[in-house]
Write a structure and sequence with these properties.
Order of helices and strands: HHHHHHHH
Structural class: mainly alpha
Radius of gyration: 25 Å
Organism: Medicago truncatula
Largest sheet: none
GO molecular function: pectinesterase inhibitor activity
CATH superfamily: Invertase/pectin methylesterase inhibitor family protein
InterPro entries: Invertase/methylesterase_inhib (IPR035513), PCW_Enzyme_Inhibitor (IPR052421), Pectinesterase_inhib_dom (IPR006501), PMEI_plant (IPR034086)
CATH topology: Butyryl-CoA Dehydrogenase, subunit A, domain 3
Shape: elongated
Helix content: over 70%
Number of domains: 1
Family: Belongs to the PMEI family.
Protein name: Pectinesterase inhibitor domain protein
CATH architecture: Up-down Bundle
CATH class: Mainly Alpha
Number of helices: 8
Length: 196
């Protein structure tokens, strides 16, 4: 029976030191990653709906939105509220987006809605940023989630500004304002998540 070749043995102290350091670094990274995961799963912060909504431009809308969560919003942690609210923002986005697409079919007013169409579904858009925020929420990467929501709000504001420049659909203006208000609620929640 032939013997299998042995792995080379490194006699150099420098090589042994490098291997030991790499092994130690790997262990530290594995331990810190595990600790971070455990800490994240233990994270549960409850903020009263009234505290969140007093920061909103329309506290009544905010309260209605959060309290419409199935089972209510009382004593619900921020992550659950954020998940629910992102879903509402996404629903409001699709309502406004479908209307923008329909309005653009009219050739005479198509240009009035181009800015909103780009903000809603361009390369860097509300749709993409909402998806990014949802992913960041699931990964418990709250600062990045807050950043994504900030970009969502900027796109909504750009759309609103463009609608004010022309005689545009009052229904779309209302839908985009509802999108803005729901976006504002998730922006407030993301601030509290980031503060930890």
């Amino acid at each position: 029976m032939s013997k299998l070749p042995r792995a080379p043995y490194f006699h150099s102290p420098r090589v042994r030191l490098e291997l030991a350091m790499a092994s130690k670094l790997f262990c530290e990274l594995a331990i810190s990653s595990r600790c971070a995961r455990e800490r994240a799963t233990q994270f549960s912060k409850v903020v009263d709906v009234d505290v969140i909504c007093k920061e909103a431009s329309n506290p009544s809308y905010c309260s209605n939105l959060l309290n419409s969560k199935p089972g209510g919003a009382k004593n619900v942690d921020l992550v659950d509220l954020a998940n629910y609210t992102i879903g509402v923002v996404k629903d409001n986005f699709y309502i406004a987006y479908k209307l923008v697409i329909n309005l653009q079919r009219n050739v005479t007013v198509r240009n009035y809605y181009t800015r909103c169409a780009i903000d809603f579904d361009g390369d860097d858009s509300i749709r993409g940023r909402l998806l990014g925020a949802k992913i960041d929420l699931e990964l418990k990467n709250y600062p990045d989630m807050a950043s994504q929501i900030g970009f969502v709000m900027q796109h909504i504001d750009d759309c609103i500004d463009s609608l004010h420049k022309n005689d545009t659909s009052p229904i779309l203006a209302k839908d985009v304002d509802i999108l803005r208000q729901s976006g504002e609620v998730i922006q407030i929640i993301s601030k509290y998540l980031t503060l930890g």
